[in-house]
Amino acid sequence: MTVRSRHVLRGTAVAGALALGLAACGSGDDAGSDGGDADAVDTASVLEGGGEITVWAWEPTLEQVVKDFETEYPNVTVNLENVGTGNDQYTALQNAISAGDGVPDVAQVEYYAVPQFAISEALTDLSSLGASELEGTYSPGPWSSVHSGEGVFGLPMDSGPMALFYNEEVFDKYGVEVPTTWEEYLEAARAIHKADPKAYITNDIGDAGFTTSMIWQAGGQPYQVDGTDVTIDLAGDEGTTTFTEVWQQLIDEELLAPVGSWSDEWYQGMAQGTIASLTIGAWMPANLESGVPQGAGKWRVAEMPQWEAGAHATSENGGSSLAVPAASENAELAYAFTEYATTGEGATTRVENGAFPATTADLESEEFRSAESEYFGGQKINEILADSAANVVEGWQYLPFQVYANSVFNDSVGQAYVGGTTLSDGLAAWQEQSVTYGTDQGFTVNP
């Protein structure tokens, strides 16, 4: 998610507990579905007929999309409401669903949260409205993330393929080469901190979204979901072990700035050069421009470091979909707006206003790829970011209760960053908590 206000800067919101039980759920493969074989919506007729819909979203580029949409389709009124970011909105949405009143027609739902809402039948299966015809419209990572079972429960609004954002001035000052592998990254971290004990290659005090993205890039598949049958393996998963072995060394050698992301100290560290890089989603450039103006001309973008030399594997970090709640009374019009906002003119408008696209047409556009960024010293950063989107490792799955799991991450894995445990032990504790919660919610969970 790309945004310009510090209040909503995050690509993946901090998640709190959100219980979405299985009481109304028949199966994870047909949640909220009217049947994938239904005829697609006659969008032209729906828009000509007009009506009024309510959209809950915090992403700021949608404001211009709504204006353009209402201009093109004057019979339609779109009420765009920001009821909170991330989990604040999810809580409000779940409360409205439970009350059977005030449910919006469209809701922004981050990719990691889609399965949790889909499995509880809170979302409409959009394949019955025409989404199945959009195969190939979006890059593989986001498109995969809006699927649950055989259904499509949202349309990708943006994406967060990961890359290395680094302060070239700091790297040059200390004679450190830009790392191409994680082993080189570890050596670079040592060199920077040795040259200046106040400087670090990056910050990290424990973040669920970052951790799962890193495991994803390493080829890990610790979560396997088949309807309500869930397997969690954070102990034996090879990708998880690959990540923890390197990252534990960074923790043990105190090579990570003990600063929370999105804090004032975080911005100050990047401005002063004491936080020299970030491995993060492609939505980050606008945040650096607005939050770290002192870094203009100093920062650059490189491919995400690799677990194997010569590879080009990446993963997603953040990003959101637009979904249609199952309780919407105007689902066809809601879908028509959702398709407009995430494809064609709507997607282009959002890119022009700072969002990073999920649409293959925009990612492959020569105009997009060749654009030079003044902030990044004239570098054509979109070439690197678009290639990252194409190289996302396939096969990743989130838990159908990932919102809850992320909310207890710092109680378990987070303790490794303060010396209370190791990453491996913290991940084992996180697995145990997740298994217990999932079982209590009615899932069949196999550790």
Please characterize this protein's 3D structure:
The protein is an alpha/beta fold and 447 residues long. It has 19 helices and 15 strands. It folds into two domains: 6-159 and 318-370, 3-Layer(aba) Sandwich (D-Maltodextrin-Binding Protein, domain 2), CATH 3.40.190.10; 162-316 and 406-446, D-Maltodextrin-Binding Protein, domain 2, CATH 3.40.190. Helix 2 runs antiparallel to helix 13 (344-352). A five-stranded mixed beta sheet has the order 2-1-3-14-6, sandwiched between helices. It has a three-stranded antiparallel beta sheet with strand order 12-7-13. The chain has helices spanning 43-49, 62-72, 87-99, 114-119, 140-145, 168-173, 182-195, 208-217, 238-252, 264-272, 284-291, 331-342, 344-352, 360-363, 366-369, 381-390, 402-407, 409-412, 423-440, and strands at 51-56, 76-81, 106-110, 147-148, 151-152, 155-156, 162-167, 202-203, 223-226, 229-232, 256-257, 277-281, 299-302, 320-323, 444-446. Keywords: Signal, Transport.
